[in-house]
Amino acid sequence: MSAPLPTQRMKSALSYLSSYIKTLPNPVVIFSQETLSSDIDLIKSLPWIREKFYITDIDDSRFWVYYGTFTLVDKRLPVSAVFRVEYGPSAMGRDGLFVDIPVGEEAVEGGKVLRVCNTHLESLPRNPPYRDKQMTVAAGFLHEDVVRAGVIAGDLNAIEEFDKRLHVENDLKDAFLEAGGIEGDDNGWTWGNQSIIGQREKHGRGRLDKVLFCGDVKVDGLQRFGNGVVLEGKEGNMLKKAIPVEEAWVTDHEGVRADLVIE
Predict the structure, then answer these.
(1) In the Cβ-directed half-sphere of 143, how many Cα atoms lie within 13 Å?
(2) What is the rounded CA–CA span in Å between residue 114 and residue 103?
């Protein structure tokens, strides 16, 4: 959501996230999309992040446009590689940000990895579409021989009928469907509940954000989180005056948490 007070909104989101992850017993990897330079500065300044997480970027010099994908990796996890892949067909500077995490007994040099991809696929309808080509590029890196298990997640902008088939066409599984979810069910909606007034009516609600996976990994749980996180007080009132929203939400998307187990 392009909105005023980006730093204040990010502060509120990170405060919520700090409390939320304290409830999680296992190591976590956090994906952020449309991350701004000011967001990175804020993230770097927070003691709890500096203590607990590796970050993929210290500035926005690797972004293709003024925003980009950004990943935080729990320091309890080893990291063997980080790389970005720019999507050839993109009018919006979209990419895949990959992190390789050595796993199990193979967590040695030259062994196989859990490869996770943080991505933000092209927004809006386009003819011909770009998201199908972008997903094929990203999925190709998950199917390399070195990968024991692969995960791709983020804002996939799944707004058209063909988006529902992308995981199948790229030999991936959809965590929501694997966990028993039904396509189109409101339990899966990640966008629309907190959108600007008028956009919900124009575009409807949808499951824009997804977790897809392949290889030796299974879904042990899936849930949305972050619903209702708002700016409080004077800053919240400023936001509501600046844009037409019902509440001073920090973002128009809800988060998706997947509990994954390497088999």
Answers:
(1) 13
(2) 6
Q: At 41, is the secondary structure helix, strand, or coil?
A: helix
Tell me whether residue 146 is exposed, middle or buried, using C-beta atoms within 10 angstroms of its C-beta: 0 to 12, 13 to 18, 19 or more: middle
Contact 116, 29 (CB under 8 A): yes
Residue type, 5: L
User: How far from 14 is each of 36, 45, 117, 222, 223, CA to CA, in Å?
Assistant: 14, 12, 21, 21, 19
Residue 217's beta-bridge partner residues? 262
For 198-219, the pLDDT digits (tens) are 888 888 899 999 999 999 999 9
Beta strand ranges found along 183-248 (DSSP E): 209-215, 217-225
Lookup: tokens for 103 = 């796993």
pLDDT > 70 in the chain, percent: 97
Look at the block and give the residue holding tokens 């003691």. Answer: 47
What is the per-residue pLDDT across 50-70, written as a single tens digit (0 to 9) for each? 999 999 999 999 999 999 999
How far apart, in whole angstroms, are the C-alpha atoms of residue 242 and residue 82? Answer: 38
DSSP state letter for 157: -
Question: Which residue, 90, 84, 115, is CA-closest to 102?
Answer: 115
